[in-house]
Amino acid sequence: MIKSFLLLSTFLGTFMFSFFFVEGVQVSTNQPTSVNPGDEFTYEITIDKPGLMGFAKVQQQLPEGFTAQAIETKSASFSSVAGKVKFIWMSLPPDDQFTISYKVKV
Predict the structure, then answer these.
(1) Most CB atoms within 10 A, among 33, 50, 67, 96?
(2) Buried b vs exposed e over 74-103: b needs ≥16 C-beta within 10 Å?
(3) 11 contacts: CB under 8 Å, gap ≥ 6
């Protein structure tokens, strides 16, 4: 059940990010294929955004009972409230490609 939810949320998050943003932006994720209650894991999101600058937000919804803690934000404002994880930049990092990450407790 948890495995299926993680795969679905990854697919939907990546699809929605790609759908609403400028052509050429690519997003990839790195996470375990399955987890057990009590586990912790790192969820990584790599964003390739050649030449784009300005405001941006990455948001993901975690399953009930999961919590998140920032690891690498690349100067974004990070919040995790009621299972909703958000990274918000007033100005994106200058790098064309960067990785953000957070730790998830199941």
Answers:
(1) 67
(2) eebebebeeeebebebeebbeeeebebbbe
(3) none
Q: Are residues 50 and 69 in contact, defined by beta-carbon separation less than 8 angstroms?
A: no
Place of tokens 């937000």: 57
With a CB cutoff of 8 Å and minimum separation 6, the contacts of 81 are none
pTM, 2 dp = 0.78
The DSSP code for 25 is: -
- A 10 A CB-CB count for 45 gives 23
For residue 74, give both structure tokens. Answer: 């690349």
C-alpha to C-alpha distance for 91 and 74, rounded to whole angstroms: 11
Task: Give the model's pLDDT for residue 25.
Answer: 87
β partners of residue 9: none
Placement of tokens 């949320």 in the chain = 9
